[in-house]
Design the sequence.
C-alpha cells in the first residue's frame, strides 16, 4: 500500500471518528456505567457473604466485561439493522438473532478471557485459556446471552421512537403544507371574486356611457375621463385584499360622480361616516357593488328622485357599514338583482372573516333597501 493510500485511509477514519464522536462517547460512558453498576452489586454480594475481595479488583473485571461489549456493540447494531423484528419477518429474524446471540456471547467470552489475562495476569499460576474459557462458559454465557437481547431490545425501542418522531414531523409538515395550500386556495378564491367585480363594474359604467353618447356627448366624454381616473385608482389598490375605509370611500365617490352625471338630480348621496372608522381595514371594493346594486335596482327603475345613505360606525370591536336607499324596495329590486354584486360581497366576507362577520339585507317598511355589514375592526 502506497503512502497516498495510507493517508487517504487515515483521513477517512479520522473523518468517521469526528462524525460519530458523540455516539462513541455515549457508548463508552454507557458501558462504563454498566461496569460500575455490576461491580457495585458484586462487591455488595461479597460483603454479604463475608468474602474478602477488593472493590478495585471487581471493578476492573466488570469494566473489562463492559469494554469488551463496547467493542462488539457496532456489530450488534449492524445485526439489529440488518434483521429488524417486524411484521412478516418476526419468526425468521427472531431465530437469526437467537443464533447470533449465541455466537456474539461466545465472542465476548473469548475477548474477556484474552483481555483479562493481558491486564490482570495469571498471578504466577500456569494459565490455560481453555480452562478459563470453559469456566466462564458455564457461569457467564447465559448472562452474555441476555445482554445481547437487551441490546437488540434497546435498538428496537430507539428505532420505534425514531420512526414515531419521523411520523410526527411528517404529520406536522403535511399539516403545515395543507394549511398553506388552503390559505393559497382561499386567497385565490378571494382574488377571483374581487377580479370578477371589476369587469362587472366596468361593463355597467361603459353601458351608461354608451347610452349618454346618444343624448349628451359632453357628459359622456366627461364620464370617460372620470372612468379612466377611477380605473387608475382601482388598479393601484388591486393587489390588496384590504384597504382603509378612507381609500374605499375615495374610490366610491369617484364612482358616484360618474353615476350622478347620468342621473343628474334623480340621485342624491349622503355620507354619515364616523372619523374613527376611516382608518379601519375593510375588503377592497366592498361598498361599490352594494351602492351599484342600490342604484341599478333601487333608484333606476323609478321615475322619482332617489337617495342613498352610506354610514359607518365603530361598535364593540367591530365596524358596521350600511348602504340604504329609498328606491324600489326588495320585491322589485330582487326581480332584477340576480347578478354578482350582493352574492359576491357576501361570499368574500364569509371567506375573509368566517363567523366573525355579519351580512344583512333589510327591506324598508315604506320601500327601499338597506344592506348592513359587520366585520372585526382593525387598522394597520
Sequence:
Amino acid at each position: 500500500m502506497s503512502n497516498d493510500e495510507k493517508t487517504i485511509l487515515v483521513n477517512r477514519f479520522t473523518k468517521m471518528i469526528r462524525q460519530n464522536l458523540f455516539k462513541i462517547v455515549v457508548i463508552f460512558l454507557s458501558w462504563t456505567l454498566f461496569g460500575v453498576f455490576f461491580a457495585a452489586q458484586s462487591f455488595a454480594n461479597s460483603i454479604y457473604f463475608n468474602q474478602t475481595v477488593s472493590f478495585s479488583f471487581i471493578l476492573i473485571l466488570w469494566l473489562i466485561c463492559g469494554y469488551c461489549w463496547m467493542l462488539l456493540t457496532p456489530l450488534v447494531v449492524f445485526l439489529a439493522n440488518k434483521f429488524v423484528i417486524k411484521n412478516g419477518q418476526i419468526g425468521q429474524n427472531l431465530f437469526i438473532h437467537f443464533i447470533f446471540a449465541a455466537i456474539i456471547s461466545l465472542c465476548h467470552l473469548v475477548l474477556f478471557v484474552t483481555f483479562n489475562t493481558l491486564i490482570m495476569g495469571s498471578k504466577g499460576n500456569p494459565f490455560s485459556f481453555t480452562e478459563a474459557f470453559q469456566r466462564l462458559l458455564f457461569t457467564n454465557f447465559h448472562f452474555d446471552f441476555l445482554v445481547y437481547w437487551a441490546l437488540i431490545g434497546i435498538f428496537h425501542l430507539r428505532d420505534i421512537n425514531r420512526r414515531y418522531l419521523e411520523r410526527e414531523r411528517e404529520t406536522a409538515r403535511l399539516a403545515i403544507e395543507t394549511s398553506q395550500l388552503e390559505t393559497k386556495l382561499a386567497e385565490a378564491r378571494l382574488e377571483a371574486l374581487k377580479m370578477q367585480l371589476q369587469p362587472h363594474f366596468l361593463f355597467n359604467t361603459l353601458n351608461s356611457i354608451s347610452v349618454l353618447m346618444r343624448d349628451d356627448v359632453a357628459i359622456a366624454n366627461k364620464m370617460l375621463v372620470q372612468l379612466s381616473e377611477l380605473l387608475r385608482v382601482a388598479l393601484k389598490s388591486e393587489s390588496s385584499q384590504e384597504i382603509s375605509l378612507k381609500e374605499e370611500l375615495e374610490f366610491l365617490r369617484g364612482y358616484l360622480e360618474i353615476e350622478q352625471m347620468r342621473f343628474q338630480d334623480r340621485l342624491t348621496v349622503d355620507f354619515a361616516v364616523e372619523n374613527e372608522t376611516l382608518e379601519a381595514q375593510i375588503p377592497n371594493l366592498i361598498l361599490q357593488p352594494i351602492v351599484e346594486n342600490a342604484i341599478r335596482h333601487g333608484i333606476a327603475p323609478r321615475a322619482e328622485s332617489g337617495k342613498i345613505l352610506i354610514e359607518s360606525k365603530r361598535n364593540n370591536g367591530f365596524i358596521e357599514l350600511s348602504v340604504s336607499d329609498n328606491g324600489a324596495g326588495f320585491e322589485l329590486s330582487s326581480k332584477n338583482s340576480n347578478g354578482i354584486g350582493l352574492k359576491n360581497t357576501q361570499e368574500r366576507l364569509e371567506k375573509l372573516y368566517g363567523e366573525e362577520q355579519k351580512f344583512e339585507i333589510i327591506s324598508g317598511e315604506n320601500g327601499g333597501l338597506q344592506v348592513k355589514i359587520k366585520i372585526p375592526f382593525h387598522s394597520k
